[in-house]
TrEMBL record:
It is found in: Cell membrane. Keywords: Cell membrane, Membrane, Transmembrane, Transmembrane helix. It comes from Planctomicrobium piriforme. Coiled coil: none annotated. The keyword Cell inner membrane does not apply. It is a multi-pass membrane protein. GO terms for cellular component: plasma membrane. The lineage of its organism: Bacteria, Pseudomonadati, Planctomycetota, Planctomycetia, Planctomycetales. This is Membrane protein involved in the export of O-antigen and teichoic acid. The chain crosses the membrane at residues 7-29, 41-66, 86-105, 125-146, 182-201, 246-266, 299-320, 340-357, 458-480. Its main location: membrane. The keyword Transmembrane helix applies. It holds the Pfam family Polysacc_synt.
Amino acid sequence: MTVRKNIIAGWMAHLVTVLIGFFMMPYILGTVGEAQYGAWVFINAVAGYSSMIYAGFGATICRYVADLSSRREWQKLNSVVSTIQLVYVGTASLVFAFTGLFAWWAPSLKHWAGLPLGEIQLSILIVGCTIGMGMIASVYGGVLVGTQRLDIKRGIEVTLGIVRLLLTLLCLHEHYGLVTLALIFFGVTVIEHGVSAWFAYRQLPQLSVAFWHARRDVFKECVGFSAFNAIALLAEYLIFFTDTIVIGFVLGPLAVVPYQIGLRIAQMIQIPISQIGEAVLPRAGELYARGQKWELAHLVNRGMGVAFLLSGGFLIGSIYFGELLIRTWIGPQFAGSQHVLVLLVASQLIALPMVVARKALLGIGQVKVQAWIDLLEAGINLVLSLIFIHYWGIIGVAWGTIIPLYVVELAVLLPYAARQLGLERRALWHTVVAPQLPAQVALILFCEYAVRVTPESGWLPLLAVTLGGGGVLLSVRWLMHLLERRSSVTTRPITGEVEALAGST
């Protein structure tokens, strides 16, 4: 599939996921209550740390499958996939052990708000088994990504997301609690990986995943590529789960709920825009291998420009209508979550354009320095969150995220990426930032008017301002694109499908 089609496929899948999430979260919260929902989020955040021991092998599978399948080296391909699965069997064993320890230790944590400890412990065990089993079977999803069949992978995720929604509605209607949620996620995960394996074997009939294909020399080769991916993954999980973990331990799982509302909306915004980076990665590798440095820089600039346009639009919308969204979606009692939402979305104004640069760096094989930069940012995030939470509560945790992100990514990561990818400072301004500003200013003017005439809650007003604001943003950007084309005296060859995508926005 092309870069453009992969981005669109990812966006369509995410649209369905967002709709499911919007429906499920308030329903689950209203059915099981704040205490159980906060405990559920906290348990998953703690268990999510175990995913760090994927050790960067996920990207290794994608890279080697893409390379070896194109050269039809089936024996080496089977050795790589089988070796990595054997590694995952070992890491899954560590997950099971960690889960047992967490379940045993859980009663000593005094913030469970009176929930039955037996139910808490059983839920922890089920979640841990889900993660461990999914780790072993995840190689098949890596095969699908490596063969550039993201459409199949996204289709599986969307279909089973709908199944999970229906099962959740059915079971929670009968007033089951945390254990039911854990069992639903376990069952759906088993089905997801089973279907992924079936499609992987259909996509690559020569695929054979078995322990006897594993080889020591292949393991050493994979470790060499995966080591710095593992550091980057460690940093990603530290950043992703730090906020929830810190809040859960310091203030208790109940305090996780208002923060999670803002975080959930920010993630819904983040994921579709980050698909641009995922689609840029293989194209960047191809251009770099061909020595097409100008085209590589042009691709990255355009991708970062689209990410900056959309993340800026979402930030403006969150400032003006974040409270309306939360009131309508969850209820007026959580309207204060807007402050968390605005801070977290503000962090994406820098983070999302840099995702494109990060993926391009990965595509050209530059992972070492980037990994250490990510780890630096994650460490500062953790320290600041632990300090600020004692002064400003959950708002302090949000500031603990945004400060290191702006400082490290702008002062350290961006200059490094510019050197490696051939990005010029002038081009960054004229391609990434400046063309998006008129559209974002127009959106601000629209919001200034709309906020005065929009009711305090209601899905219809929310839908109206969303469609209106999106229309203003994209229309003005399209007009600017036409003016840019008309005023340009000379044109360079259009490189990559992200150029077409940027023009369409």
